[in-house]
Design goal:
Blueprint: H1 2-24, H2 30-57
């Protein structure tokens, strides 16, 4: 579960950096960059949440440490 959260956060930071660079270099306007960033981060969070739910539903083959 911690791995899923870490991957989700890292991908969100990469998306923010990419859209931020596009805004800084004046490729996107402010409104377009905010809209794009919101959509990309929402998609990443949705996929992360879905994979976390699937991970909770799948039985774990690992034995607890003794």
């Amino acid at each position: 579960m911690k791995k899923i959260l870490t991957i989700t956060v890292v991908l969100s930071v990469f998306a923010a950096a990419t859209v931020g660079c596009l805004y800084i270099f004046d490729i996107l306007s402010f409104e377009d960059s905010v809209s794009s960033l919101l959509k990309v981060v929402a998609a990443i969070v949705l996929l992360g949440g879905c994979s976390a739910l699937v991970a909770l539903l799948m039985p774990s083959d690992k034995e607890p440490p003794t």
